[in-house]
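Supplementary Data S3. Sequence and structure tokens for construct A.
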Amino acid sequence: MTWSIIAKDNATGQIAIAVATKFFAVGSRVPHIAPAIGGIATQALINPYYGIDGVKLLREGRSPHTIIETLIAKDAGHASRQLHIMDAKGQIAAYTGKDCVDWCGHLKGDGFSIAGNMLANGRVLDDTAKAYVTNADLPFAQRLIAAMRAGELAGGDKRGKQSAALLIYGEEEWSDLDLRVDDHIDPLAELQRLEAVSRERWVHFRKYLPSRKNPAGITDRAVIDAGIAAAIESWQ
């Protein structure tokens, strides 16, 4: 009842997952990311532990293929699950259980993985992929949303639409961007609006937060305000 894309931005090293569905609060359960290591999307009749345990296995250095084998081996309900994984090296593995509702399947490309179930047709994934490739000149977050909107135009979730999410991690343990539209008549349009709002201050502010390299971050408000103002001006 969902389709999602996992991708890596080679320019920044960011790893992201974008997802949409006709179900409540998809962002709270589907996307899981280990910063600078990889991402997992668990969907269909979702098993949250695929994400929780899968991230642990990614951190241990397991390959996506091995992780999927490990996860489904201990889940008697795996025939009703779908998941896909991409690590920071670009290795991809996916699993669509035999009891997932048509249309269901997955595809992979250079630096991205897409999977979905209960979709209107196979073009949903194809058009999501084409839009992601075509819009390589867009900033990463906007590129992902454009890809998902293309998939929606191809039919999307065959039941309709309700929620969407975009999760992006850089090298820190906190997210670069975590946008969730939990219940909306047009969730991807709302996600696009929120992404635009994030560029008003948040994406410029986040570099001043504490990091592993700079545990205190920047606390001088004058420096922060001047930096944000300069960044906004350069973007206009």
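Construct B, processed identically:
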Amino acid sequence: MTKTNKTLKDILDVILYENPATQDEIAERLGLTRRYVTRLLKPLIDENIVKRSYILDLKKYEEIYGDEDNLFSNDHSASFLIKGMLQNMADHVSKQLKTAFEALINGDKEKAKIAMEMDYATNNMFEKLRSSVETVVSIDPSTQFSKTLIFNEIGYDLERIGDYCDHFSKFVLNEPNEINDEIMITLKSMYKSVDKMISFSMDAFLKEDLSLKGDIMDLEEKVHSLQKKALNYIAIEMAETSFEDKEESTYYIYLSRLVKSFERIGDICIEIMDTATEFHKNIPRSTVPRSFRDDR
């Protein structure tokens, strides 16, 4: 991709995702001169691909320019742009989980605060994604409406994972008690498993690698096995604790919540995998709750 086309792609990204009101605003956001922005946009404005209100008509862009200069790699459709947003969001959520869990391992309150701040970014990324999906649907009536809205579902799933990450950060900030070695070792194994599940499920959706389903299901089984192991350790510790010690009782409740958070993240990854199958193969997802299915 030439430097000029890379700059044009950046300009179109700003138009699609940030809804600028003027060319001055586009130029300021990208550190360009207004004159340069005008020169690059003029052919697209003349062809009515970019409207005067700075809305990008993706369908018309594709009809006229096709794959010319490979502007958006091998697929410059709206779905490609939104998939890029989802990939960025998935990478961010994985970093958020890693940051929150490292804070738990080290009892690092500053890192826990950083992880919680990352959750605000996760929420903002979802809002931008949702806005972009709505924009694509509004400017391209030929879009497959139901499939396009699935992008919102995946974004919402990632936002939910971000919410569960907060449980680890809040535990570090609010609980003075340390986690014993046996439980921590089990939690570390759960973290490694769900981290892979996030990566695999997003690859299944974004890269159409549906062959990963078996690996994801195996990891889910491992997470459930580790969950039982961790809850058993917690139950043993609770049995040795006085019922009158309310602080200790609260500690075990919140510790159990951490274990449950890993299970929930794993379940969300299975949902993403099921959605990927529906999206790419048009195989409807089951309406039977997962807890009642034979394949669980």
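Confidence is low (pLDDT under 50) at residues 68-76. Residues 49 and 63 are 10 Å apart (CA to CA).
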